[in-house]
Hints:
This protein is α/β, with parallel strands linked by helices. The chain has two domains: 3-350, 3-Layer(aba) Sandwich (Alkaline Phosphatase, subunit A), CATH 3.40.720; 352-433, Arylsulfatase, C-terminal domain. It has 13 helices and 15 strands. The protein has helices at residues 57-64, 79-88, 104-110, 122-125, 155-168, 182-185, 191-195, 222-251, 286-289, 313-323, 339-342, 396-415, 426-430; strands at 3-7, 32-38, 67-72, 114-119, 135-139, 174-180, 214-215, 259-265, 276-277, 293-296, 305-311, 353-357, 360-364, 368-371, 377-380. The chain has a nine-stranded mixed sheet with strand order 1-5-4-6-2-8-10-3-11, sandwiched between helices. Mean pLDDT is 90; it is low at 1-18 and 24-28.
Amino acid sequence: MDAxxxxxxxxxxxxxxxxxxxxxxxxxxxxxxxxxVFDRLHAGYLGAYGNAWIETPALDRLASRSLVFDxxxxxxxxxxxxxxxxxxxxxxxCPAAEESRPSLAALLREAGVSTALVTDERxxxxxxxxxxxxxxxxxxxxxxxxxxxxxxxTHFARCxxxxxxWLEDAREPFLLWCHLGxxxxxxxxxxxxxxAYREEGDPPLPASADVPERMLPPxxxxxxxxxxxxxxxxxxxxxxxxxxxxxxFFDGQAASRETLLSIVSARGFPLGEHRRVGPCDDAxxxxxxNMPWMLRFPDAAxxxxxxxxxxxxxxxxxxxLDWWHIQGVPASPTGRSVMPIVRxxxxxxxxxxxxxxxxxxxxxxxxxxxxxxxxxxLFAKPDDRWEVxxxxxxxxxxxxxxxxxxKQYEQAISAGTGLALPPLSDVLxxxxx
Length: 433
């Protein structure tokens, strides 16, 4: 495998932008962060999120030492918009990115923090904000016709080797951002990983590494979904195995004692819910937009805490700025640092989340999830986790109220006037008594 190492703006000889109005607090000790973004990771396939039939010991162990968000959602499943939120604190519904608004990597460079982006996703590597990283390790996109015999031959294993090699030579303080797309590009886990979830009498599992992508017919065979789910489970187990090896290495390094670790998903992977399999469209249901998110702090702050706060990608941007005590940055329209939750000073970040993908729109509150459109769909939360029961015709007042709240949100954020929105009614926020 070839992994190209390319310098960011500073390394390429470009002059780093001057940020005179932003204040940085420098410490005698190093403060680092590792952000691992696993694209197409389905929240329902992790033990920490209630799955009881897939073994994910590394992620489960990490969750026990982390602040875990149960209600984190992406603001868009489209990577270009999503990474504006992660790296610039700009919601997917914001107008096009402002050139004058510094990226996370540019801010950290000014603060003396070295930054690196490791990814196998070309769309992330070529994102306009990626140029601000000091280094880019671009891993060749995966292609294998079928599963391999040994873990070391898998794409995930090769990716984690690159991550470990970078960490071995990391100069503190640092930010290492990794985006891995293997769950959505190749299912090359050794066949034994899939077979571990196949029971006697189940249909045979395919050996192909091809990732399924299709809309199932209304009368589809349940066995078709079963085989796909078992194959995906094997790939999640492979990811967990590789992650466990990386964490075992890193936790033995001195730098880990000063490092914030974030594990998050860029978007989920539909596995037959609402008849969709794979990235066939951007319907804003939970299997696509629920975002597993764990934050492990080096001093064990927030460990084993499960937060019910509504969280979104720009919150990670705000949290990292808070972690490095970077002040004076123009406020994000939506991003909120989660540090008050970590300290136990707050348990709520906002009363609604709004999502966008092309013409698709959705709004989530603690009590409801509305997929807007010509025929809106409404689902009661948190009981209807995967949006099975559409209650729109039974709750027309809720549909109307959420449609108006979504309209107000989009108008405010598009105008760039901030989010001075009226509070939601008790029914929209908390449901019926």
